[in-house]
C-alpha cells in the first residue's frame, strides 16, 4: 500500500425539479448552496453544490436536477445510502425537524451507532449519524443553528456487484482500513475527519438503474494536482483505466469504474469555491467556466429560475 485517501471529497446525485432540490437541502437540511453552475457536459442542466459555510471537501453534496427525469433504482454498482454527519447529541433535534417537515424517518443501528434514515423528495436515500469527529459547521439557516448543523459526510453505504473486488480496491489500493464486520456489512475507515467511514454490503443486491433519486458517483479527495497524478499512475499500474484529468473549475477530476460497477472519482481539494466569487456571496449568482461564458444568454434562457428560500415546517 503506497497511498491512502483521506475520504470522501463529494457525492453527486441525479434528482428532479431544481427548486424542490434547493428547498430540501437548504430549506430542510440547512446546508449552504455554495455554487450554482451548470453541468459542464450538459450546459442546459444545473449543477448545484451544497456544503458547509465554505464548501469544504468532505461536505460537498452535488446534484444534476432534471425535471421529469425517469426514476432510478438503487442497486448493484451504486452508492446505496449517503451518510451525513451531525454533532453528538443532535439526533433528537433532527428527528423532530424532519418529522415537522413531513419527512418519514426510520431509526436503525449499524456497528453500535444509531442512524436516522430517510429519502429526499426525489427518492435519494440519506441517513444522519452523530459523531464527535469533524469540524463544526459555521452555517446557520432556516431554523438549523450552527451547533446542530450538518458537519459534512459521515460516509456512505456502497452496493457493489462484486463486493470482494470492491473491498480489495478500497483496502489494498486506496489505503482504507477494514475495522468491523457483521452479518450484512464490512466497515472501512479512512484517515480523514469527514467522509471517513464506508460500509460495504456483503451481499450484492440486484442491478441498479440510473435516474432520479440515485447517486451518480462518489469522489475521493486528492491533496492537490500532484497527488492526483500519483493516484492516476497507481490506478493504471493496478489495471484500472482512469480518465484524463478533467477541469471542473473548482477542482480537477479523474474518473474510473471499479470492478463492482461504482463510478469513482478522485478530485483535488483546491482551488475551491471562492475561486470566482467571495466567501460571503457563495452560490448567489450563476457561475460559468470561461469556455461557457460566451453562451450565457442562451444557457440562462434554458435554465429554470430558482431561489434559496426559507421553508416553514408545514411545507409552505
Give a brief description.
This protein is an alpha+beta fold and 316 residues long.
Using the CA coordinates, give the radius of gyration.
Answer: 18 Å
Highest-level CATH class: Alpha Beta
Largest sheet: 8 strands, mixed
Structural class: alpha+beta
Q: How would you sum up the global shape?
A: globular
Q: What sequence of helices (H) and strands (E) makes up the elements?
A: EHEEEEHEEEEHEEEEHEEEH
Could you say what the CATH topology is called?
2,3-Dihydroxybiphenyl 1,2-Dioxygenase, domain 1
Calculate the terminal CA-CA distance, rounded to whole Å: 52 Å
What does the average pLDDT come to? Answer: 96
Q: What is the number of helices?
A: 5
- The fraction of residues in strands falls at 25-35%
Number of domains: 1
Main β-sheet, spatial strand arrangement: 2-3-4-1-13-16-15-14
- The CATH superfamily bears the name 2,3-Dihydroxybiphenyl 1,2-Dioxygenase, domain 1
Oligomer: single chain
Give a count of the beta strands, DSSP E runs of length 2 or more: 16
Protein name: Glyoxalase family protein
Organism: Melghirimyces thermohalophilus
Domain VOC: 7-131, 152-269
Amino acid at each position: 500500500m503506497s497511498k491512502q485517501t483521506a475520504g470522501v471529497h463529494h457525492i453527486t446525485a441525479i434528482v428532479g425539479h431544481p427548486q424542490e432540490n434547493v428547498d430540501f437541502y437548504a430549506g430542510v437540511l440547512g446546508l449552504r448552496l455554495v455554487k450554482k453552475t451548470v453541468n459542464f457536459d450538459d450546459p442546459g442542466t444545473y449543477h448545484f453544490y451544497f456544503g458547509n459555510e465554505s464548501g469544504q471537501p468532505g461536505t460537498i453534496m452535488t446534484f444534476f436536477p432534471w425535471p421529469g427525469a425517469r426514476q432510478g433504482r438503487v442497486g448493484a454498482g451504486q452508492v446505496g445510502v449517503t451518510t451525513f454527519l451531525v454533532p453528538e447529541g443532535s439526533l433528537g433535534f433532527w428527528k423532530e425537524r424532519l418529522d415537522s417537515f413531513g419527512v418519514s424517518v426510520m431509526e436503525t443501528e449499524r456497528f453500535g451507532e444509531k442512524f436516522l434514515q430517510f429519502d429526499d423528495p426525489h427518492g435519494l436515500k440519506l441517513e444522519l449519524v452523530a459523531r464527535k469527529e469533524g469540524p463544526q459547521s459555521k452555517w446557520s439557516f432556516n431554523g438549523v443553528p450552527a451547533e446542530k448543523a450538518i458537519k459534512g459526510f459521515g460516509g456512505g453505504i456502497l452496493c457493489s456487484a462484486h463486493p470482494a473486488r470492491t473491498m480489495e480496491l478500497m483496502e489494498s489500493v486506496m489505503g482504507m482500513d477494514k475495522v468491523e464486520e457483521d452479518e450484512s456489512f464490512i466497515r472501512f475507515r479512512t484517515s480523514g475527519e469527514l467522509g471517513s467511514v464506508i460500509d460495504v454490503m456483503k451481499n450484492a443486491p440486484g442491478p441498479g438503474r440510473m435516474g432520479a433519486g440515485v447517486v451518480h458517483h462518489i469522489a475521493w479527495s486528492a491533496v492537490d494536482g500532484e497527488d492526483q497524478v500519483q493516484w492516476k499512475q497507481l490506478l493504471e499500474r493496478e489495471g484500472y483505466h482512469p480518465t484524463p484529468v478533467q477541469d471542473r473549475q473548482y477542482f480537477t477530476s479523474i474518473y474510473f469504474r471499479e470492478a463492482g460497477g461504482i463510478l469513482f472519482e478522485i478530485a483535488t481539494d483546491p482551488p475551491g469555491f471562492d475561486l470566482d466569487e467571495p466567501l460571503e456571496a457563495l452560490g448567489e449568482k450563476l457561475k460559468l467556466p470561461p469556455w461557457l461564458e460566451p453562451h450565457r444568454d442562451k444557457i440562462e434562457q434554458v435554465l429554470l429560475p430558482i431561489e434559496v428560500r426559507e421553508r416553514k415546517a408545514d411545507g409552505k
